[in-house]
Design a protein that fits this description.
heterotrimer; A alpha+beta; B alpha+beta; C alpha+beta; B: alpha+beta; Uridine Diphospho-n-acetylenolpyruvylglucosamine Reductase, domain 2; Uridine Diphospho-n-acetylenolpyruvylglucosamine Reductase, domain 3; Enolase-like, domain 1; 3 domains; 5-stranded antiparallel beta sheet; 12 helices; C: alpha+beta; Aldehyde Oxidoreductase, domain 3; Aldehyde Oxidoreductase, domain 4; 7-stranded mixed beta sheet; 6-stranded mixed beta sheet; 19 helices; 29 strands; 24% strand
């Protein structure tokens, strides 16, 4: 007989979702394969690369080091949920493209989630704070230089938006 | 890299957690932050039959800071302890050392008590608990609680005094006595990695600003973090005249590092001396200012 | 103007989907596919005595279990040796599933297919393989003793042995020239293993359509066309019944150019057999132990030189560790041997390499592909000459440079493509002076002295390289303008993050005179383009870029011809701007490309407005001519191929300033400067990105990354915990300057840029650490622990 399944409810990108998972189902697999949100990527499954980083009640966490059943009832934001409410790109998304902060794009969703939280908590970080903030995410393509640039650019874009409002 | 199947338990309070642990011992494993455990499960290096997830036990999500020290509940995340101003005031070494624990995203999920129970000799928190002379509170179903002093808690690499069926409910980090300073120094290969070597230091001065006590606990240079008292090597001198290099040398001679793929034993011993000197000087300086 | 796009830092067109989570990587496809997992050898060298799969049969959700015995003819054969070479006398490749003997930890032994990956791993864990241990052969120098053999029938573990020799202009052999030189140095150099390590592992997903007996395969590959040919041949299917698509690929860096990987044969085969979709997505541990590694070499150097440091004779003997199998031939050591000479004119050169089997993961190209090792050898040699003579390190290099007037310059060797190693263009003296300026070479001694006064140790180093890029034999491009005015470009080679959709669109838009947003580009999809070689050797911009330009020119010519007829003008008076063909100087006389596309096809059903409009241009049909004339084709499209006579040679020079901690022996890169010449830049933003990423991988290889095998052939650091790929905290800011020496060999004047950044980094960092410490550095990577031990070993 099969494994016991647990009924869980998650609010993902603002949408209530229900699914049934075995206890061992990683949140990364649940998001990708059960809920069809494949934007969250899996690069190592031991918590080092950061590709699978999502926001759990707003805080960045590794979805490959979290069981889906553990976060029953919680709110999750994935890269698919980073756009502005009006559907336009978020400042962080825009800045990553403008600054050529991605090449193959595989690590990018993890960076975008991490940076979104970083700039929410610290809207104008110093160079050192940016590097520390993204220090748990691996990128094999960019050499990080343009990612650091993009974080500053996103901070600038957010500042401009604030200024206007 | 997917975990083996297990029976999943999600107790709602400590009593229920202890009941489940008792019923499933020795096949139950506690899941708190999971930042060390889940990699082992994903690699199938560990395959417990039962997983007892304490993430729904709010009474364990506590940080109590007071005059005596900081008591950290089993569900308090590294990031929460790091951010807690009252904890930093009561025991500044916590925040100092936590900044060396992995990366911010890991600290959002990983727990201080979980890191202690994991008992990795390369981890920062065990050394901090040891150098401060703290303790871990263990509870078992029907058996009450016991406090295990840090010096007895770490029994070997990845081995602690917690027995099957027991739950580490909290850890206690005593506050500093007056005229006491602390410091933490480490070298890691990459920022956020486990240390190649690291030293946590606590130095206390007497009213004449002479060294009353000096002790360190070292990371990654032995099977477990052991408290090393170097008060005698300081010779009761004022901090400014202590022969710190020779004190540090004494530290480096008392650790028991091994070779691995990242460093030779000789380098680790040397590095421990370098870091011990740096940490002891900073701690002594803080003690004099405090 | 919208159409002047070549050379502009245009923002990437692939970004939008990738920053919104809408990219489609291999494991994002096939939601309902069955999952494959593999039982892999836990031993480096063992004979398989038996396999008991009965335990797996208990697993609910298990679909199939296959061992080598279960594989049919074709599928069960050894995988192909892709690039044979006369010197590779003992080439050996693996079976897709091990037959009898396993030769490295990680070799696939049993394939399991189940409802999902969790269950497949459960089943794999329950399969018992009975092994008889054989003596593992680990380490190049142990292997070359030949006491124990990786392959019973390969004596001395030597797969290949090759000598190339270029005598001096006076006819002297290199050894003779070394012996006769005023100064002679001899030394040994070591470089350890690393690996491409893209963040997305390999993966294969196959769909068999039983109704029309066709197979569609998705693979995270650098060459979908060749995977297609391999799969069709192995499975005995007609080529037109197999299509292979490289979806979004999460990095390649060389490891995904190898084909077919065992899984690329087995997964499609299982999908056909089971009549179900099957997918395998490699996990990180699998990637470490079953995908390819690179770099490891031992080099013995003898060099003879004059008082100015000019190299009169260079004699290099290389032992190359190629792991357990040689599917990719001996490309890596050939590149080391030939690219070693760099920008220098060497008196006489002899290079000999032996490619050695060990019981470790196979070695195939990783970004740089043998060049980092060659550059390490040459540049460490230059530094030693300078030290020996007490000369400035840049002066010794300058004394040996090939001069700008000497191109084309024939190095007298045979390159990786089997063609002569002839440099097409470059300006090495200018490059060096730019680098010295950028890093502040001449002022550094004062800075070093000031730092020393504060107890700090600084050091500076540099290294130069020449990189053969854009190797043949060919790539093709197809450009089609449809009746909606859109331009569809395709090429067969694949993309792994290089921004091809953007740069190829820039090329096509520039050639055709259309706005960029009208152009879409598809790469790596055999349904769109069947003939291609693949993405490696920094060849995409050179090969497909030029092919697309040529194809676009064909389309442009045809468009002008048709438009000229419609406008009753001379084609030579026409220009295309913003997607509209105009008569120069007559704003009224114009026709859109969309309309031209309609006119190009005599079948004009009025499906859209353009087709309706087109009728007004329809000229009087001649009843004497067929609607599609001889030599013509319907439609506004063109296909062309670019096939160069030989490679084009990019070059560059890097310098770094490092600080070493006198107490902890930590090594920090304070500055990193790059001067780079890849001919004409198509998109400078993308080229810079390639350099940044390359340098970062180089820093990884210089200071952090290594594959550590123990004596039993166990890889001790098969995880990102212990294989230390650098984070942002470890990578310096890279300062870049560009020199543009166009290639005379191709229509666009471009050279490759993809690999350049990684090539000289180990040599640069070794030189800088050596300068800071005053200790000879002859092996890389170097860790703080190793620097500490070096200090101890050389302490007085």
């Amino acid at each position: 007989m099969g494994e016991k399944l647990h009924e869980i409810r998650l609010t993902v990108n603002g949408v209530p979702r229900e699914t049934r998972v075995p206890g061992r189902r990683l949140l990364s697999d649940c998001l990708r394969h059960d809920l069809g949100l494949t934007g969250t990527h899996v690069g190592c499954e031991h918590g080092v690369c950061g590709c699978c980083t999502v926001l759990l009640d707003g805080e960045p966490v590794r979805s490959c080091l979290t069981f889906a059943v553990t976060v029953d009832g919680r709110e999750i934001t994935t890269v698919e949920g980073l756009r502005e409410p009006d559907g336009s790109l978020s400042p962080v998304q825009r800045a990553f493209s403008e600054s050529h902060a991605l090449q193959c794009g595989f690590c990018t969703p993890g960076f975008l989630c991490t940076v979104t939280a970083l700039l929410r908590d610290n809207p104008a970080p110093s160079d050192d704070e940016v590097v520390e903030g993204i220090s748990g995410n691996l990128c094999r393509c960019t050499g990080y230089q343009n990612i650091v640039k993009a974080v500053h650019r996103a901070s600038e874009l957010m500042g401009e938006a604030e200024g206007r409002s | 890299m997917k975990p083996s199947a297990f029976d999943y338990h999600a107790p709602r309070d400590v009593g229920e957690a202890l009941e489940i642990l008792a019923a499933t011992a020795p096949h139950g494993k506690v899941l708190a932050g999971g930042q060390s455990l889940i990699p082992l499960l994903n690699m199938r290096l560990a395959a417990p039959a039962h997983l007892v997830d304490i993430n729904r036990v709010p009474e364990l999500d506590t940080i109590e800071a007071g005059g005596a020290g900081v008591r950290v509940g089993a569900l308090a995340r590294h990031a929460a302890v790091e951010r807690s101003d009252s904890a930093a005031r009561a025991q500044p070494l916590l925040r100092t050392a936590l900044r060396h624990v992995a990366h911010p995203v890991i600290r959002n999920r990983g727990t201080v008590v979980g890191s202690l129970v994991h008992a990795d000799p390369s981890a920062e928190m065990p050394a901090v608990l040891v150098v401060l002379g703290g303790s871990v509170r263990l509870a078992r179903h029907g058996g009450g609680e016991r406090d295990v002093p840090a010096a007895d808690f770490f029994t070997g690499p990845m081995e602690s005094a917690a027995e099957p069926g027991e739950l580490a409910v909290s850890a206690f980090f005593p506050a500093l006595t007056p005229r006491t300073g602390t410091a933490f120094a480490e070298v890691a290969r990459r920022h956020g990695d486990y240390a190649v070597a690291g030293v946590a230091a606590v130095v206390s001065l007497d009213d004449d600003l002479r060294i009353r006590s000096a002790r360190v606990a070292c990371v990654s240079v032995g099977p477990r973090p052991a408290p090393l008292d170097v008060t005698e090597e300081c010779g009761g001198r004022p901090a400014a005249t202590v022969d710190w290099p020779s004190v540090a040398r004494a530290v480096s001679l008392r650790v028991d590092p091994g070779d691995d793929i990242h460093a030779t034993a000789g380098y680790r011993r040397h590095l421990t001396g370098v870091l011990a000197e740096r940490a002891l000087r900073v701690a002594a300086g803080e003690a004099a200012d405090g | 103007m919208t159409t002047k796009l070549f050379g502009e830092p245009v923002q990437r067109r692939e970004d939008l989907r990738l920053i919104t989570g809408e990219g489609r990587y291999l494991d994002d496809l096939g939601k309902d596919a069955l999952a494959a997992a593999f039982v892999r050898s836990p031993h480096a060298h063992a004979r398989i005595r038996g396999i008991d799969v009965s335990g797996a049969l208990e697993v609910d959700g298990l679909v199939a279990v296959y061992t080598w015995e279960d594989l049919p003819e074709g599928v069960r054969d050894p995988l192909p040796l892709l690039i044979p070479h006369p010197a590779l006398t003992h080439g050996r490749t693996a079976y897709p599933l091990a037959r009898d003997v396993v030769r490295h930890v990680g070799e696939p032994v049993v394939m399991v297919v189940a409802r999902d990956r969790y269950l497949a791993e459960d089943a794999a864990a329950l399969i018992e393989v009975d092994y008889e241990f054989l003596k593992p052969v680990v380490g190049i120098e142990e292997a070359v003793q030949g006491v124990h053999l990786v392959h019973e029938d390969v004596p001395g573990n030597v797969g290949a042995h090759l000598v190339q020799e270029v005598p001096s202009p006076g006819g002297a052999g290199a050894r003779e020239a070394v012996d006769a030189a005023p100064h002679v140095l001899a030394f040994r150099l070591d470089i350890e293993r690393s690996a491409s390590t893209p963040l997305e592992g390999r993966g294969v997903y196959a769909r068999w359509d039983a109704d029309d007996r066709s197979l569609r395969v998705y693979s995270s590959t650098q060459t979908s066309t060749s995977v297609r040919m391999a799969v069709a041949a192995k499975l005995g299917l007609p080529l037109p019944s197999v299509e292979v698509i490289a979806p979004d690929v999460g990095g390649g860096f060389g490891v995904k150019i190898v084909h077919p990987w065992p899984e690329e044969v087995l997964v499609p085969w299982a999908a056909m057999l089971l009549g179900r979709e099957v997918k395998w997505a490699e996990d990180r541990r699998e990637h470490f132990i079953s995908s390819a590694h690179e770099r490891a070499q031992v080099q013995h150097v003898r060099v003879g030189f004059d008082d100015e440091g000019r190299v009169l004779g260079l004699d290099v003997t290389i032992l190359h560790d190629h792991g357990a199998y040689t599917p990719y031939g001996i490309i890596v050591p050939i590149i080391t041997a030939t690219q070693l000479l760099g920008p220098y004119r060497i008196g006489a050169y002899r290079v000999e390499f032996s490619s050695i089997y060990t019981n470790t993961v196979q070695v195939t190209p990783y970004r740089g592909a043998g060049r980092p090792q060659g550059v390490f050898c040459m540049e460490r040699t230059m530094d030693r000459i300078a030290a020996h003579l007490g000369l400035d390190r840049t002066a010794v290099r300058a004394a040996n440079f090939i001069q700008p007037g000497e191109f084309p310059y024939d190095q007298g060797l045979i390159f990786q493509d089997g063609r002569p190693l002839i440099y097409d263009s470059g300006d090495y003296p200018k490059s060096l002076s730019m680098l010295k300026e950028l890093i502040g070479w001449d002022a550094f001694p004062q800075a070093k002295e000031r730092a020393a006064a504060e107890g700090r140790r600084l050091g500076i180093g540099l290294a130069c390289y020449v990189e053969g890029t854009g190797v043949g034999p060919y790539e093709g491009g197809h450009v089609q303008v449809t009746s909606d005015g859109r331009v569809h470009v395709s090429t067969g080679l694949t993309s792994q993050g290089q921004g091809h959709e953007t740069v190829f669109a820039q090329i096509a838009a520039t050639e055709l005179g259309v706005p960029l947003d009208r152009v879409s580009v598809v790469t790596g999809d055999t349904r769109r383009f069947g003939y291609a070689v693949g993405t490696f050797a920094s060849r995409a911009a050179v090969m497909s870029g030029n092919a697309i330009a040529l194809a676009a020119r064909k389309v442009r010519d045809k468009a002008l011809r048709i438009a000229a007829e419609a406008l009753e003008a001379d084609p030579r008076d026409l220009e295309i701007e913003d997607g509209v063909v105009r008569v120069a100087g007559d704003p009224e006389a114009s026709i859109s490309l969309a309309t031209v596309a309609v006119l190009s096809n005599p079948l004009r059903y009025a499906f859209d407005e353009e087709a309706k409009r087109a009728t007004q241009f329809a000229g009087p049909a001649s009843m004497d001519r067929p609607p599609v004339e001889a030599g013509e084709e319907p439609g506004l499209e063109g296909r062309d191929y670019y096939s160069p006579v030989r490679s084009t040679f990019a070059s560059g020079m890097h310098a770094a300033i490092v600080e070493t901690d006198p107490d902890t022996a930590e090594i920090r890169i304070l500055r990193y400067a790059v001067v780079h010449d890849c001919g004409r830049l198509i998109n400078p933003m993308i080229v810079e990105g390639q350099i940044h990423g390359g340098v970062a991988q180089g820093v990884g290889g210089a200071l952090y990354e290594r594959m550590v095998y123990d004596g039993h052939g166990q890889l001790l650091n098969a995880s990102f915990m212990d294989f230390l790929m650098p984070y942002a905290t470890e990578i310096p800011f890279v300062e870049t300057a560009h020199l543009e020496t166009p290639s005379p060999l191709n229509p666009l004047g471009v050279k490759g840029a993809g690999e350049a950044g990684v090539i000289p980094v180990s040599a640069v960092i070794a030189a800088a650490v050596e300068d800071a410490e005053g200790i000879t550095v002859d092996r890389m990577p170097i860790s703080p622990s190793e620097l500490y031990e070096l200090r101890r070993a050389t302490a007085p």
